[in-house]
Amino acid sequence: MFKKSSGFTIVELLIVIVVIAILAVISVVAYNGVQQRANNTKTADALNGWVKALRYYRTENGQYPNAWTCLGGDYLYGPTGTDTSGVAQCRQDVAGAGYVRNTSFENTMKPYLNGALPTPAFVTAKSSDTQWVRGIMYAYGGGSGTDVYLIATFSGDVTCPGVQGMITGKSVWGGNTRCIYTLGQTTDPV
User: Fold this and answer.
1) Domain count, the chain
2) Calpha distance 54→49 (Å, rounded)
3) What confidence tens digit (pLDDT) does each residue in 4-26 have?
4) Cα angle at 40 between 115 and 172, to 5 degrees?
5) Is residue 3 situated within a structural domain?
6) 3-state SS of the chain?
7) Taking 80 as the threshold, does the pLDDT of residue 77 lie above it?
8) Residues 71, 118: contact at Cβ < 8 Å?
9) How do residues 162-177 score in pLDDT, each as one tens digit?
């Protein structure tokens, strides 16, 4: 009579390991998709909040605020957002020169935002170590010289979310999307 041994065979163990690995990969991919959508929703919500406040400001004051600034708080350092020091900025065009938060602009806008600054997710669209954008940036008098516009950065190669009545331009830098929304012109009548 043969004695029956207990335990698993190598083939059975390999099958279990492969099944666990496949489930782990599916979970990671699903999590990354959820994280990307959450970041993009946060940025789109912040963008819409700023657009409403800027339009309200323009209605009351006859023009958009004159500033170049990052919108929201807690911007990160460096082109990847992982540096521990430097200048916390939302856009850099050349090494050492970029755009930062403007507290005077923020204080001017707070009444139009019910005191809270809408803050985007801090996704970075990086063309190079010296040219990148992150979060949302506001520009008064850029582009053609009279454009008033916002640059928002979204995770992944996605379609720029629509904002009512705004013209959009899109580019993809380093796998993330850079959307340009034109509010109007500095010379537009109210």
Assistant:
1) 1
2) 9
3) 667 778 888 889 898 888 888 88
4) 120
5) no
6) CCCCCCCCCHHHHHHHHHHHHHHHHHHHHHHHHHHHHHHHHHHHHHHHHHHHHHHHHHHHHCCCCCCEEEECCCCCECCCCCECCCCECCEEEECCEEECCCHHHHHHHHHHHCCCCCCCCCCEEEEECCEEEECEEEEEEECCCCEEEEEEEECCCCCCCCCCCCEEEEEEECCEEEEEEEEEECCCCC
7) no
8) yes
9) 887 787 889 999 899 9
**Distance between CA 146 and CA 144 in Å, rounded?**
6
Residue 1 lies in a domain: no
Which tokens go with 90? 């939302």
In this structure, what token pair is assigned to residue 64? 């958009």
Whether 136 and 50 have beta carbons less than 8 Å apart is answered as yes
Residue 190 lies in a domain: no
Q: Residue 155 and residue 124: Cα distance in Å, rounded?
A: 8
For 92, residues 6+ apart whose C-beta sits below 8 A from its C-beta are 79, 98, 99, 130, 131, 132, 133
Host domain of residue 43: 10-185
C-alpha 61/C-alpha 104 separation (Å) is: 16
d(CA 157, CA 186): 31
pLDDT, averaged across the chain: 85
